[in-house]
Specification:
By secondary structure, the protein is an alpha/beta fold. It folds into 2 domains: 2-172 and 222-251, NAD(P)-binding Rossmann-like Domain (Rossmann fold), CATH 3.40.50; 190-221 and 254-322, Alpha-Beta Complex (UDP-galactose 4-epimerase, domain 1). Helix content is 38%, strand content 18%. The chain is built from 10 helices and 14 strands. The protein has helices spanning 11-22, 55-64, 79-84, 86-106, 140-159, 190-199, 226-241, 259-270, 294-299, 309-322; strands at residues 2-6, 27-31, 46-49, 67-72, 111-117, 162-168, 170-172, 205-208, 220-221, 223-225, 247-251, 257-258, 276-279, 288-289. The longest helix has 21 residues, at 86-106. Bound molecules: uridine-5'-diphosphate-4-deoxy-4-fluoro-alpha-D-galactose (UFG). Homodimer.
Length: 331
Amino acid sequence: MSILVVGGAGYIGSHMVKRLADQNEEVIVADNLSTGHRAAVDTRAKFYEGDIRDHAFLKQVFDQESIDTVVHFAAFSIVPESMEKPLKYFDNNTAGMVALLEEMRDHNVKRIIFSSTAATYGVPEKSPIEESDRQDPINPYGESKLMMEKIIRWADKAYGIKFVALRYFNVAGAWPDGSIGEDHGPETHLTPIILQVALGKRDELSIYGDDYNTPDGTNVRDYVHVVDLADAHILAIKYLKDGNESDVFNLGSSTGFSVKQMVEAAREATGEKIPAKIAPRRPGDPDSLIAASKKARTVLNWNPQYDDVKEVIKTAWKWTQTHPNGYDDRK
Ligand code: UFG
């Protein structure tokens, strides 16, 4: 039986595919390459190009392959873009999930691991955030993912499709040998932008606001290494295969870093100056997002290897230095 990774050509999906292939799993990747890269997909995986909203495409993949588990990364994830184009997010993320679940139901596939997000909490009621805390998103991206969580719960009740929803905090880093990494066009995420400044590809970093309700006034986020994240998915697959009930887990490091602290850590990790200036706030940014990830550690036995944000940045730096133009496949 194989594992279908939808969105397996994207940043997090490609790390998951490599991790699964290293464990000798049979991996099928489906990706529409709208933001992903064909070159990011490990050669041991079988690749289908297509869109999860396209029923005929999905049907073909499920008909041709013996799939028993789906891992879903095929969502848009840029908070500021979602503020400007909310319908794009509800279409691809929320409606895409419905199409995928319909095909899973019709092909009797009973397990799905899917990427949810810290953005479903909105402005947290307390910190660190626990899984049972209130979810009240402040941007369409978070709302689209909250809707996906709700839809999947009902699909479980009606069709017995078991799920694990993993609420990621801020994912960073790259495969340690620098062979795959983060490449979005245009890039909006903090770590790759900082490293583009370090590399000299950008003149300076704009820090979006220093008047937030945080110790140094800049947004605080919880950064987790992409390979640790992939490992959590592998444990989540095992959790469902062992017959456990559907559940939701936060994935973070439980430590918050401000934007200014990230810049400082990157200066130390790279030895570069990294000029930065204060710029206006970016819409949709909550002050602080820090995960309580005890549940993933105790229930899934998740044991993240990267607990030092400098080490996380170093892996991304290796990718950036060896791939200054990313995958170099922009159309
Ligand atoms: N930031 C800057 N300058 C930049 C880019 C980012 O100051 O040039 C700041 C942002 O304002 C924010 C922080 O750096 O405070 C992190 O921003 P990112 O864009 O890297 O990440 P987000 O926190 O917006 O979102 C990420 C993922 C989401 C996820 C969220 C959960 O992209 O999918 O983390 O914490 F939901």
